[in-house]
Amino acid sequence: MLHTKSQIAWFGALVIGMALLIGNPGSSGATSGLMNVKDRRPAPDFILKDSKGAQIKLSVYKGKVVLLNFWATWCGPCKAEIPWFVEFESKYKGSGFAVLGVSMDDDGWKAVRPFLEQAKMNYTVMLGDDATASKFGGIDSLPQTFLIDRQGRIAAKQMGLTRQTTYQEEIVELLRTTN
């Protein structure tokens, strides 16, 4: 059967589009980027200090859906995601949701405190360390974000800049489910 160039181009575009859709579980397609419940493992617990000096323990958040974001003030993609996290904290806080930020800045609070005010971050931010990073398999690039379900299990891991809609879809799905 002979095909025209336009038919071949259309078919090629269709194949590429399907590959992108299937290859990106966070896309607007029906597939979720969340792990199957049976494949989820408990999030490693940690205690870190927030900007006010209070100790924050991850396991205290069990019963809530948590977006745990490892970031830094110098990281461009991190800065792009922060306004989304501010929005999510405001929108879903009353539904059993929390955003926790773990700054990996070498300059510590000297760099982070002014940034918190400038970015109007409305969620808990802590200073991370190598020990905490290693508990999560090592944080080799930023941002890295973990979505943790109500049972304290890692339900999704995003590396690098991720679309706002991907996060939102996964958060809503986790808030909707109880297992």
Describe the fold and architecture.
The termini are far apart. The chain has five helices and eight strands, in the order H-E-E-E-E-H-E-H-E-H-E-E-H. Helices cover 36% and strands 21% of the residues. It folds into two domains: 1-31; 33-176, Glutaredoxin (3-Layer(aba) Sandwich). Strand 7 and strand 8 (153-159) form a beta hairpin. By secondary structure, the chain is an alpha/beta fold. The protein is globular, with a radius of gyration of 19 Å.
Please supply descriptive tags for the structure shown above.
single chain; 179 residues; alpha/beta; Glutaredoxin; 2 domains; six-stranded mixed beta sheet; two-stranded antiparallel sheet; 5 helices
For the record, the CATH architecture of the largest domain stands as 3-Layer(aba) Sandwich
Q: How much helical structure, as a percent, in the residues?
A: 25-40%
**Straight-line N-to-C gap:** 52 Å
Percentage of residues in DSSP E strands: 15-25%
Outline: globular
Secondary structure elements and their pairing?
Blueprint: H1 5-23, E1 41-42, E2 47-49, E3 55-57, E4 65-71, H2 76-92, E5 97-103, H3 109-118, E6 124-127, H4 130-135, E7 144-148, E8 153-159, H5 164-176
Parallel strand pairs: 4-5, 5-6
Antiparallel strand pairs: 1-8, 2-3, 4-7, 7-8
Structure in a nutshell:
The protein has 179 residues and is an alpha/beta fold.
